[in-house]
Amino acid sequence: MELNELNRIVNTVEGSAASAADQVDVFSNHDPYGGLMALIGMSIVFVVLLLLFVVFTNTPRLYTTEFKLWLSGLFSKRKVSEYPDAVVAATPKGEDLSGEVNAAIAAAIYLYRSEMHDYENTVLTISKVSRTYSPWSSKIYGLRNLHR
Questions:
Q1: CA gap 110, 116 in Å, rounded
Q2: Coil, helix or strand at residue 128
Q3: Of 60, 91, 93, 138, which is most buried by a Cβ count within 10 Å?
Q4: pLDDT tens digits for 97-106?
Protein backbone atom coordinates (compact mmCIF):
# COMPACT_ATOMS: atom_id res chain seq x y z
CA MET A 1 0.00 0.00 0.00
CA GLU A 2 1.01 3.52 -0.54
CA LEU A 3 1.59 6.06 2.16
CA ASN A 4 -1.46 8.09 1.12
CA GLU A 5 -3.75 5.07 1.53
CA LEU A 6 -2.35 4.33 4.97
CA ASN A 7 -2.86 7.96 6.03
CA ARG A 8 -6.44 7.85 4.74
CA ILE A 9 -7.16 4.66 6.72
CA VAL A 10 -5.62 6.10 9.89
CA ASN A 11 -7.65 9.32 9.52
CA THR A 12 -10.83 7.28 9.01
CA VAL A 13 -10.20 5.23 12.15
CA GLU A 14 -9.37 8.33 14.18
CA GLY A 15 -12.45 10.11 12.85
CA SER A 16 -14.74 7.20 13.73
CA ALA A 17 -13.22 7.00 17.22
CA ALA A 18 -13.73 10.72 17.67
CA SER A 19 -17.33 10.50 16.45
CA ALA A 20 -17.98 7.60 18.84
CA ALA A 21 -16.55 9.66 21.69
CA ASP A 22 -18.78 12.56 20.66
CA GLN A 23 -21.82 10.28 20.67
CA VAL A 24 -20.92 9.03 24.15
CA ASP A 25 -20.64 12.62 25.35
CA VAL A 26 -24.03 13.50 23.87
CA PHE A 27 -25.63 10.44 25.51
CA SER A 28 -24.02 11.24 28.87
CA ASN A 29 -25.36 14.81 28.63
CA HIS A 30 -28.90 13.54 28.04
CA ASP A 31 -28.68 10.79 30.69
CA PRO A 32 -26.23 11.86 33.40
CA TYR A 33 -27.24 9.20 35.98
CA GLY A 34 -27.60 6.26 33.59
CA GLY A 35 -31.30 5.63 34.23
CA LEU A 36 -32.16 5.47 30.54
CA MET A 37 -29.28 3.07 29.91
CA ALA A 38 -30.46 0.82 32.74
CA LEU A 39 -34.04 0.93 31.41
CA ILE A 40 -32.89 0.01 27.90
CA GLY A 41 -30.73 -2.84 29.22
CA MET A 42 -33.47 -4.27 31.42
CA SER A 43 -36.05 -4.03 28.64
CA ILE A 44 -33.77 -5.94 26.27
CA VAL A 45 -33.27 -8.67 28.87
CA PHE A 46 -37.01 -8.98 29.54
CA VAL A 47 -37.85 -9.09 25.83
CA VAL A 48 -35.31 -11.88 25.31
CA LEU A 49 -36.70 -13.78 28.31
CA LEU A 50 -40.22 -13.40 26.92
CA LEU A 51 -39.08 -14.74 23.54
CA LEU A 52 -37.41 -17.72 25.24
CA PHE A 53 -40.62 -18.40 27.17
CA VAL A 54 -42.64 -18.39 23.95
CA VAL A 55 -40.15 -20.70 22.23
CA PHE A 56 -40.03 -23.19 25.11
CA THR A 57 -43.78 -23.30 25.61
CA ASN A 58 -44.33 -24.01 21.91
CA THR A 59 -41.62 -26.67 21.63
CA PRO A 60 -43.98 -29.64 22.31
CA ARG A 61 -45.93 -28.69 19.20
CA LEU A 62 -42.88 -29.65 17.15
CA TYR A 63 -43.37 -33.30 18.10
CA THR A 64 -46.97 -33.65 16.96
CA THR A 65 -47.96 -35.60 13.88
CA GLU A 66 -49.78 -32.61 12.40
CA PHE A 67 -46.59 -30.54 12.51
CA LYS A 68 -44.59 -33.35 10.90
CA LEU A 69 -47.16 -33.63 8.12
CA TRP A 70 -47.14 -29.87 7.64
CA LEU A 71 -43.33 -29.81 7.59
CA SER A 72 -43.10 -32.67 5.12
CA GLY A 73 -45.70 -30.88 2.99
CA LEU A 74 -43.43 -27.85 2.84
CA PHE A 75 -40.43 -29.76 1.56
CA SER A 76 -42.12 -32.25 -0.76
CA LYS A 77 -44.16 -31.80 -3.89
CA ARG A 78 -46.98 -33.94 -2.51
CA LYS A 79 -49.66 -32.12 -0.61
CA VAL A 80 -51.07 -33.18 2.73
CA SER A 81 -54.38 -33.99 1.03
CA GLU A 82 -52.58 -36.62 -1.09
CA TYR A 83 -51.47 -38.62 1.95
CA PRO A 84 -53.37 -41.81 2.69
CA ASP A 85 -56.31 -41.49 5.04
CA ALA A 86 -54.70 -43.98 7.42
CA VAL A 87 -51.96 -41.51 8.34
CA VAL A 88 -54.43 -38.76 9.11
CA ALA A 89 -56.80 -41.15 10.88
CA ALA A 90 -53.96 -42.42 13.10
CA THR A 91 -53.93 -39.08 14.91
CA PRO A 92 -57.02 -38.96 17.12
CA LYS A 93 -58.09 -35.46 18.10
CA GLY A 94 -59.27 -35.09 21.66
CA GLU A 95 -59.80 -38.83 22.19
CA ASP A 96 -58.69 -40.46 25.41
CA LEU A 97 -57.20 -43.91 25.15
CA SER A 98 -58.81 -46.66 27.20
CA GLY A 99 -57.00 -48.47 30.00
CA GLU A 100 -56.61 -51.62 27.93
CA VAL A 101 -54.88 -49.74 25.12
CA ASN A 102 -52.55 -48.00 27.58
CA ALA A 103 -51.71 -51.33 29.25
CA ALA A 104 -50.96 -52.95 25.88
CA ILE A 105 -48.69 -50.06 24.88
CA ALA A 106 -46.86 -50.17 28.22
CA ALA A 107 -46.39 -53.95 27.99
CA ALA A 108 -45.04 -53.69 24.45
CA ILE A 109 -42.59 -50.97 25.46
CA TYR A 110 -41.45 -52.97 28.50
CA LEU A 111 -40.89 -56.12 26.45
CA TYR A 112 -39.04 -54.20 23.75
CA ARG A 113 -36.75 -52.46 26.21
CA SER A 114 -36.03 -55.63 28.21
CA GLU A 115 -34.81 -57.38 25.06
CA MET A 116 -32.40 -54.57 24.25
CA HIS A 117 -30.01 -55.32 27.10
CA ASP A 118 -27.45 -58.11 27.06
CA TYR A 119 -27.55 -60.50 29.95
CA GLU A 120 -24.07 -61.28 31.14
CA ASN A 121 -22.72 -63.68 33.70
CA THR A 122 -22.31 -61.80 36.98
CA VAL A 123 -20.18 -64.36 38.84
CA LEU A 124 -17.20 -62.68 40.45
CA THR A 125 -14.09 -64.69 41.16
CA ILE A 126 -11.61 -63.53 43.76
CA SER A 127 -8.32 -65.36 43.84
CA LYS A 128 -5.70 -64.92 46.54
CA VAL A 129 -2.31 -63.74 45.39
CA SER A 130 0.42 -66.24 46.26
CA ARG A 131 3.02 -63.57 46.86
CA THR A 132 1.93 -61.46 49.84
CA TYR A 133 5.15 -59.45 50.12
CA SER A 134 5.02 -55.97 48.68
CA PRO A 135 7.63 -53.24 49.06
CA TRP A 136 4.76 -50.79 49.50
CA SER A 137 3.76 -52.36 52.78
CA SER A 138 7.27 -53.14 53.98
CA LYS A 139 8.27 -51.44 57.24
CA ILE A 140 12.01 -51.59 56.60
CA TYR A 141 11.85 -48.94 53.91
CA GLY A 142 10.37 -46.27 56.15
CA LEU A 143 11.22 -42.62 55.69
CA ARG A 144 12.72 -42.22 59.12
CA ASN A 145 15.51 -44.62 59.99
CA LEU A 146 16.07 -44.15 63.73
CA HIS A 147 18.63 -46.98 64.14
CA ARG A 148 22.06 -45.86 62.96
A1: 10
A2: coil
A3: 91
A4: 788 888 888 8
